[in-house]
Fold this sequence. Notes:
It contains ten helices and twelve strands. By secondary structure, it is an alpha/beta fold. The protein has two domains: about 110 residues, Aldehyde Oxidoreductase, domain 3; about 150 residues, TIM Barrel, CATH 3.20.20.70.
Amino acid sequence: MLLREIESFLEEDVGHEDYEDIVPYTECKAEITVRAEGVLAGLDEAKQICDYLNIKYSSVFEEGDRIKRDDTILTVWGAGAKILKVERLVLNFMGRMSGIATLTSRFVNDARHVNAAIKVAGTRKTTPGFRKYEKKAITVGGGDPHRFGLYETVLIKDNHIMLMGLENAIKKAKEKVSFTRKIEVEVESLEDAIRAAELNVDIIMLDNMQSTEVKECVRMLTEKGLRDGLILEASGEITQDNIKEFAATGVDVVSSGMLTHSATWLGFSLHVVE
């Protein structure tokens, strides 16, 4: 975490009042416990927040560990005023990130049950200002973060195609961006998938298709000799209920916004014990 990020998060929660003047400065010890089973994420951020206020800590866990209800995840000790000052911020980080990591782990386990090599990726459907932490939580859960922003990969979507046409959009992208950046095209039909592959893009996203349609696209692209070196991604309305179907189609990647926008937080609590 950057120093300015920690200070900004604390300012959002504590405001401009000197919280340490309100709460007693008594030395104490507290434990953070979890109220549900899942995959732990956000522990590193919790430690960095504690470091900022000189709060000591210890833990037997690491990022990505499986945790169960009532586990003591982190023990902290120091000035009570400082511990209570960061309590909600620390719990929010761990709760949000662990929720994403846990859901991602479930998606990955289901998908790899039928396709051991497949990648499960997130999307840019993230909380403004918190994207890098949500993306990190996806990786902790065994997923792929996908691109972090518009700057990483050129993604030609339906609106670009409406404005420019498929061939012109691909041509412009190849003219304007560095050879180091991949070009991905979002398509919704077999015909457009074939045309995009013929235009030598790096990745084709098969968007909002049924799993049977995705499987047919994979078959046709293979039959036409267009599959080698081409990354195929399935996306759109992919849930834990249907991810096995999409993983079995032969694509390389399945991506789902659910990993972030529908992840349920894991509950964490902090209690002073001494």
